[in-house]
Amino acid sequence: MSAPGKADAIARANIALAKYWGKSDDRLNLPAVPSLSITLDPMRTETRVELDERLDADVFELDGKVALPKETARVTAMLDRVRAESGIAAKARVTSRNHFPTASGLASSASGFAALAAAARAAYGLTRDDAKASAMARRASASAARSIYGGFVELPAGEPGDDALAAIPRHDASHWDLRVVVGVITEGRKDVGSREGMGHSRETSPYWRAWVESAPAMCGVIREAIAARDYERLGPVVEQSFTTMHALAFTSSPSTMYFQPASIAALQTVKQLRDRGVPVWPTMDAGPHVKAVCPGEAAAQVEQALAATPGVLRVLHARPGAGVEVG
Ligand code: 2P0
Questions:
Q1: Where does the Diphosphomevalonate decarboxylase-like N-terminal domain lie (predicted)?
Q2: Domain boundary among 143, 174, 205
Q3: Residues 195, 155 share a domain
Q4: In angstroms, what is the span from residue 90 Cα to ligand 1's centroid?
Q5: Residue 163 belongs to a domain
Q6: Most buried residue, 27, 114, 158, 208, by CB count within 10 Å?
Q7: Is the ipTM of this complex over 0.90?
């Protein structure tokens, strides 16, 4: 075998400023709307892929424990594609570790599948090709396509059938010192997962069509505002992208509501800060946590105010980070 047989990769989480919510092709996992995110430090996943001719099936260990069968099945699905492309049939041992601050409110699937795609391609001897790794990561989890690249990254909407769809790096991490301050809200019931939630929105929300029609313009403004480092233009659209996405979830039947009372309190904190002249706008994902997006110089004030908000357990501070690193 000419493959090195073993490779390591590190990938970071990301947070979407323009949200992805809903698919145009379920089988190929293609998004119905474009999204744009910041790849984040210090939330990262480290993954090792080691080929082992003696194995009859892939083995996946996550954070020191053998993973659940359904988690291993998603890993095997990706490895099967790498095996098909490389022509090497050997199974692999995959070891993955998340270095996330405790209950960060940020999903590890994006960094996890990005690190896996990059490590697996290298271990099976494929030449580094970030666009291919991004498309492969997208098949597993669309947000993972964005974590292949650092800084500010866009994932266009996919036309059904376009299995090559990959993210596009717009600017690297040094382009703009934007910060994301996460207000971690009380751990309560388990939320409806993103995949299930977005499918339900597409099937049942009367606003689905309006979302698909309006999301590209919001993403376009966000793209332009980032290019111009224009925070005044960026902030209101970042808010509108998440409120429109949550309106979709909220108006699904039965309703999917990700907000908890403390989410509202944290959103009010952000609004009050802004009323006092602090540049800060919020976003939220498929969970109750509030993520405040602000320029670096405002971050300390935002952290302090969010930490003092009733129901906010702790506050985390993230900044633009690098794309996938393969070793
Ligand atoms: C995003 N989210 O753009 C949006 C906003 C959550 C809310 O991408 O079904 O795990 O695996 O492609 O990528 C999370 O959804 O969904 C997500 P699948 P994924 O960040």
A1: 11-166
A2: 174
A3: no
A4: 31
A5: yes
A6: 114
A7: yes
